[in-house]
Write a structure and sequence with these properties.
The complex is a heterodimer of chains A (about 325) and B (about 525). Helix content of chain A is about 75%, strand content about 0%. Chain A has a two-stranded antiparallel ribbon with strand order 1-2. The longest helix of chain A has about 35 residues. Chain B has about 525 residues and is an alpha+beta fold. In chain B, strands 1, 8, 9, 10, 11, 12, 13, 14, 15, 16, 17 and 18 form a twelve-stranded mixed beta sheet that branches. Chain B has a four-stranded antiparallel beta sheet with strand order 4-5-7-6, with helices on one face. In chain B, strands 2-3 form a two-stranded antiparallel ribbon. Chain B is globular and about 75 Å long. The chains are: A mainly alpha (about 325), B alpha+beta (about 525).
Amino acid sequence: MTVFIIRRLLQSVLVVAVMTVLVFAGVYAIGNPVEILISQDATEAERAAAIARLGLDKSLPEQYLAFLGNLLKGDLGTSFVFGEPALQLVLERFPATMELAICAMIIAIFIGVPLGLYAGLRPDSWGGRTIMTGSIFGFSLPNFWQGLMLIMLFAVILQWLPAGGRGERGEFLGIESSFFSWDGLSHLILPAINLALFKTSLVIRLTRASVRETINLDYVKFARAKGLKSSRVIGLHVLKNIMIPLVTIIGLEFGSVIAFAVVTETVFAWPGMGKLIIDSIFQLDRPVIVAYLIVIVFLFITINLVVDILYAILDPRVRLSDQKA
Amino acid sequence: MWRSLSTATFAVGMVMGATAHAEDITIAVASEVTAMDPHYHNTGNNNQIVGLIYDRMLHQDSNQQLEPGLAVEWGPIADDVWEFKLREGVKFHDGTDLTAEDIVFSYERVPNVPNSPSSFATYTAGIAEITVVDDYTLQFRTNGPYPLLPIDLSTIQIVSSENPDATTEDYNAGTASIGSGPYKFVSYTPGESIVLEANPDYWAGAPQFDTVIYRPISSDAARVAALLAGDVDVISGVPTSDIATLEGNPDIVLSQGVSNRVIYLHVDSRRVYSPFITDNDGNQIFNPLQDVNVRKAISMAIDRDTIVEEVMEGVAIPAGQVLPEGFFGVSENIDVPEYDPEGAKALLAEAGYPDGFKLTIHGPNDRYINDEQIAQAIAQMLTRVGIETAVETMPRSVYFGRATGGDDGSEFSLMLVGWGSGTGEASSPLRALLHTRDDDSGLGRTNRGRYSSAPFDATLQLALNTVDDDMRAALLARATEIAMREVGLIPTHFQVNTWGTRKGLRYIPRTDEYTRPTNVVPE
C-alpha cells in the first residue's frame, strides 16, 4: 500500500514536469502578455521595462529554468496581472469552486442513483423510459445554454433565485461556507444544478446499465430463490456490487467537475478557479495558468488514489499492492 | 484541506453582507479589477472604480472636459512652469488634511510601484521638478513646453502620504486604501465584489448612494439577465443584439452615448512587400498600399452607413477622423468619406490595379463591439471593388502582439483596431497612431501601418509644443486633415456605448466608457 502511494506520487511529479514544459512553450508561442496588459499610452522604454520586470526578456529555456528554481523553493511565481503569488490566487478561489463541485456531485448522486435504479429495475415501464429519454437532454443540451435558461426561468421570470454571484457565507463549526446561510444556498442552487445536469445523466445511465447487468447474475437469482425480500436483494446485493463502477466514475467525474466548472462559473459569475483560469488564459497570465494546472493535476492524482483505495474496500478481491498502477 | 483554507480566505469577503435599503446601488461591469492600488495598473476598468475612492488634481467630466478637482486654479506661468492652487479643507477618509505633500508623494510613488504591469509613469515622465510653494500651492517645472500637463495629471489618483511604504497588497486589503474621493473603501473580494460606502464629508457634497457594490459579470448574456432579474441596478456594455428587446421592456432604461473610441483600419503603407498581399494568382507583388490612391480606394469602397446600420444595429457613428465632433482638436473640415464603389474601381485602375489584388484583413474577435462581423463586412465590400479579401480573426491575446509585430513591423497588412483617446482630445490618437514611429520620444508607438509624413509630423510637433489652447486646437485639426487626406489610416466608425439601468434610474453616458455611480441619476 505504501509503495503504491509513493509510486503514485512520483508519477504525479513527472506529470507536473511534463505539463509545465507544455504550458510554458504553449503560452510563449501565443504571444507576449505585455501587449495586452500595458497602457496604450506607454512609451517604448516603459514597455521594455515592463517586459524586463516580468522576466519576459529572457529566452524560453532561461525563463523555464528560473521557474524550476523557484518551484524548488515552493514559489510558483507571481501573477503578471495581479502582482500577487499565483498559488495564493488559485487557492483563494478554491473553496468557492469546491462548494459548487460538492453541491453538484451531491445532486448528481442523490438524483442519479435512485432514478437509474428505477430505470434499471423497470426498463420497459413508462417511468423508466421517461427517465432514459430525459437523461439524453442532460447529455446533449449545451451547458452554457442550460445555464442561461435556468437564469431566465428561475431568476428573471419567476424571480425565485438570484441570477448569479456568490451569496453570504454562514459559519458552522468554524467553517465558513455558502452551505450555512440561506442567502448563500440560494446563490448556490442554480449553478450547482447547471453543473450537475450532465453528471446526473451520466450517473443515471451508468446505474441503469450496471443494474441491468447485475440483476440477471446467479447470486442475485440465488438470493431471490432463498426468498429474501426484494428490498434486501436490491439494497444489499445489487447496490453493493454496482457501487464499484459507480465510485470509479463519480470519483473521476468529481475531478473533472472541479477542473472544468469554467462554463458554469462564467455564466453565473461564480468567483471560483474556473473564472480565474479563463481570465488568466485571455490575459496570458502564465504563472496563474501553471499554478492552476499544478493544483488540478495533484487534485486528480489524489482523487484517483482515493478511488483506488475505496475500490479495495468495496471489492475484497482487489489488493492495491498487487497492482502495477 | 479545503476546510482550513476556506476559513482563512472567506473572512475577507464577509463584510459584503451589508443590509440593503433604497439608496444602495449594485453595478455589474464586464471585467474584474486587477488591484485596488490606484497606481498599479492603468486600465479603464480599474480607473473607473479607484477614481471613486481617490481624488485627482483635475477631473474629467462625462465628456472628458477638464474641471477643477483638488486643484481650483491652474495655469502656465512660463513656457515650462505650471502653477496649481489646491482646494483648502479637503480631508482624507481618515480625517487628515490633504496637502501639497500628499500630491508630491503620489506623483513620486507612480513610477515606483513594484510588479506594475502598466504603470502611470507615462503621465509623470514630463515633469522635471515639483516645488511646494506652500501647503496649497505647487509649481511644476516640465521638460520643455508641456500643454498636456493638466490632462495627464487628471489621470493620477492622490493617495495619503501617511502610508509611505504601503504596498499593492495593503491597498487590496484595504489597510492603505485611504483616499479623499466621494466613496470610501469597504471591501474587495477578488472576482466577486467591491463594496464602497458614501463619504459624507466629500468636498463636493455627500454622494447620492449610501453603498455601492461593483460586481464583475463577464458574460454579456448573464449581465443582461442579472439586470432583468433585478439582481443589479446598472450594467455596462449592453450587447447590440439585445438592445431592441430591452427597449421594449418597461422595467429597463437604456442610455447611449458616443465614446472616445474610433474603430479604424491600419494600413501597411511603408514596406515594399507586405505579408498578406499578392496578385490574383497568389504571387508576391510590390505593396500596393504604399500608393495613396489605393488607400483612398479602400476607404471609398467601405460603406460606413451599412456597417453602422446592419452590423452595429444603428448603435455607432460613421467616422471620417480619429475623434467624434465636440472633442478638442477635431477638424470641422473633414466629412465622412462617401461610399463610392465605382470611384474606388476607377482609382484602383488608375493606380495600375484594374483587376485588383488579393489581401487578408486581420482583426480581433473579443475586443471591440461586433469586431469580427465588422471585419467580415469590410472584406465583402473590398471584394466587391476587385480587391479579393480574406478574413482572419483571433482572440486579443494573440492578435495585438502580432499586429504590433517585431522590428520588421506588423505581421499583417490590413488590420482592424480601435483607439480610445484617454486624454479626451486629438493629440492622443495622432501621437500614437500616425506620427512617424520614434522609440526615443515614444511618438508613433502604435503606428502599426508605419504611415510617415513630414508635414504631418511637423504640424503635430508644433501642436505638442503650443501651450495656447486655441492655437493648439487649430494645429491638431490641421494635422488631422493632413493625415486623413493622405489616408494614414482608415476610420470606419465611433463606438457608441449602451448602459442599462432599472426603471427609475438613468445613466449619463461617459465618453471614457467608465461606469460610475456618480453618473447614475433618477429617471
